């Protein structure tokens, strides 16, 4: 795990994957976006496939609508499964959007973004024809080591300014 400290705001990144020969994978995520195993950082929401990634034009779970998901159903061959990362635990899709997903008769999973990243990686590593539409989570918890490290750096930086 890595932790980046911004002067006003903490940004946490969780490392998920280091494989390069399995196609695109999500290495880590934070509240601003996603780092992929090829070193690319995707700012904001993304649509990721085995070999390509696109920016996804949504801001919050409220913006995930049948229209914002329509591109995933136009693909040939059809996806085995679509993984939808809604952001934080507790964020939910509208009932109309869930009904639309069911009507398309395509497998889908609706998960918090942290779980959606690892689910996408797992399915992709199994060579499944999978895509994910993921919003970065806004609530990324720090573990105790990360909190200590951030506090230590903050104290060290304050001492440097005082000298």
Short description:
The protein has 4 helices and 10 strands; from the N terminus they run E-E-E-E-E-E-E-H-E-H-E-H-E-H.
Q: Can you describe what's shown?
A:
The protein has four helices and ten strands, in the order E-E-E-E-E-E-E-H-E-H-E-H-E-H. The protein has a single domain (2-153), classed as MTH938-like (Hypothetical Protein Mth938, Chain: A, 3-Layer(aba) Sandwich), CATH 3.40.1230. It is an alpha+beta fold and 163 residues long. The chain is globular, with a radius of gyration of 18 Å. The protein has a five-stranded antiparallel sheet with strand order 1-2-3-4-5, covered by helices on one side. Strands 7-6-10-8-9 form a five-stranded mixed sheet, with helices on one face. The chain starts with a strand and ends with a helix. The chain has helices at 66-69, 95-103, 113-125, 144-162, and strands at residues 2-5, 10-15, 26-30, 33-36, 41-43, 46-48, 53-55, 81-85, 107-111, 130-134. The model is unreliable at 1-6 (pLDDT under 50).
């Amino acid at each position: 795990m890595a932790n980046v400290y911004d002067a006003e705001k903490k940004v946490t990144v969780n490392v998920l994957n280091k494989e390069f020969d399995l196609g695109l994978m999500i290495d880590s995520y934070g509240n601003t976006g996603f780092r992929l195993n090829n070193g690319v950082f995707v700012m904001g929401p993304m649509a990721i496939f085995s070999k390509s990634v696109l920016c996804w034009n949504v801001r919050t779970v409220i913006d995930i609508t049948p229209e914002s998901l329509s591109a995933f159903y136009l693909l040939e061959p059809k996806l085995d499964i679509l993984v939808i990362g809604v952001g934080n635990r507790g964020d939910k899709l509208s009932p109309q959007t869930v009904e639309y997903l069911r009507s398309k008769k395509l497998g889908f999973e609706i998960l918090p973004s942290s779980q959606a990243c690892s689910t996408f990686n797992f399915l992709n590593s199994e060579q499944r024809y999978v895509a994910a539409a993921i919003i970065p989570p806004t609530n990324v918890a720090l573990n105790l080591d990360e909190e200590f490290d951030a506090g230590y750096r903050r104290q060290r930086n304050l001492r440097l300014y005082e000298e």
